[in-house]
Design brief:
Blueprint lengths: L17 H13 L6 H4 L5 H16 L5 H14 L3 H14 L2 H8 L7 H12 L17 H21 L13 H16 L27 H13 L8 H13 L19 H11 L6 H7 L6 H31 L1
Length: 335
């Protein structure tokens, strides 16, 4: 039997207990899929599962603004990050919103007919570039916490999916067929169109000081969820040495959103700094992680839990770089 998981073997969802089981129950209710592999893969590091779900739920699902617009942002981010798994997922979810013609235009690589849709999609793509001009927004300012939260959610999830999952959303790549995409979307339509009450996921999180929430979240549950994921993902730093952090800091400071060259010039050698290399790949080009990269880092003490934490740390380094430029831009605009 084929599995969507690369490098880890997460426990089957039916064996989940405690908070993990509670997260799966909320996902089934509010997302419409009982155990999506993007979340099951995180269950190898359960402390990451709840805040990742919370950020997605409170922004994409329960946050203000129409679901079509937020799916376009998620799709734009996924295109910018070269994550075919997530591109296919959001195409299916656009079918679920009822925007079938839009979903199929995008599946063919065509631009939306609607100019507002085109602007939102392009905005999502531009969020990959630290410092890109993102204001004025192509959506109402009151909806900014949900749209920004959605973008940052999928900058994280894209990297997890590209690093730790295969490209196939459905077995044998069945999502590539229009009829399958449409049918899968229609099966989720009732859930996607049902209003979700904001804040329900926060009970799954560790206690978060509201002062840790970013200003762009404007006091919404999105900010608390973001702060929880930031705190948890950054704990992965403990898996690396001080010299590794110096390498990562220099690389991320210079990153302008471009994808690295085929030769991976400037990346640490896997024989000398396998942890730093794996982390930097997770941040900038997770689709370039190879079996050799993982094998070079893994030791007997490096469990699946460790690997997921390290990849999540790299993924969030990129998210944090993007978010910090968004926050600086918002502060500058307010002056």
């Amino acid at each position: 039997m084929t599995t969507p998981f690369r490098y880890t073997e997460p426990l089957p969802p039916r064996s989940a207990a405690g908070t993990v089981a509670e997260v799966y129950a909320q996902i089934a209710l509010d997302f419409g899929i009982a155990a999506p592999s993007t979340f099951v893969v995180l269950s190898s590091a359960p402390e990451l599962l709840a805040p990742t779900w919370a950020l997605m739920r409170e922004s994409l699902i329960a946050g203000p603004g129409g679901r079509t617009g937020k799916e376009l942002v998620a799709l734009g981010v996924s295109l910018a990050n070269k994550c075919p798994f997530c591109v296919d997922a959001h195409t299916v979810l656009l079918h679920a919103t009822g925007d079938h013609a839009l979903a199929e235009r995008l599946a063919r690589g065509e631009a939306p007919h609607n100019e507002d849709h085109a602007r939102v999609l392009a905005w999502g793509q531009h969020t990959r570039v630290p410092g890109a001009t993102l204001v004025p927004y192509p959506f109402p300012r009151a909806h900014a916490p949900a749209y920004l939260g959605t973008a940052l959610t999928f900058h994280f999830i894209n990297r997890i999916a590209s690093a730790l999952l295969t490209e196939n959303l459905l077995p044998a790549g069945a999502q590539r067929f229009r009829a399958v995409r449409s049918l899968a979307g229609r099966s989720l339509a009732r859930t996607v169109r049902r209003p979700a009450r904001p804040g329900r996921s926060l009970a799954l999180l560790e206690t978060i000081d509201p002062g840790e929430a970013p200003a762009w979240a404007a006091g919404t549950p999105v900010g608390l969820a973001y702060a929880a994921l930031l705190r948890t993902a950054m704990r992965g730093a403990g898996l690396l040495g001080a010299d590794d952090h110096d390498v990562l800091e220099a690389a991320l400071q210079d990153w302008d959103g471009t994808h690295p060259p085929l030769a991976l010039d400037g990346f640490p050698d896997r024989r000398e700094r396998p942890g730093a290399r794996l982390t930097l790949l997770a941040a900038l080009a997770p689709y370039r992680i190879t079996d050799e990269d993982v094998a070079a880092w893994r030791r007997p003490e490096h469990t699946d839990h460790c690997l997921v934490r390290l990849v999540a740390y790299g993924a969030f380094l990129a998210v944090d770089r993007i978010e910090s430029t968004i926050s600086a831009q918002i502060i500058q605009e307010a002056l």
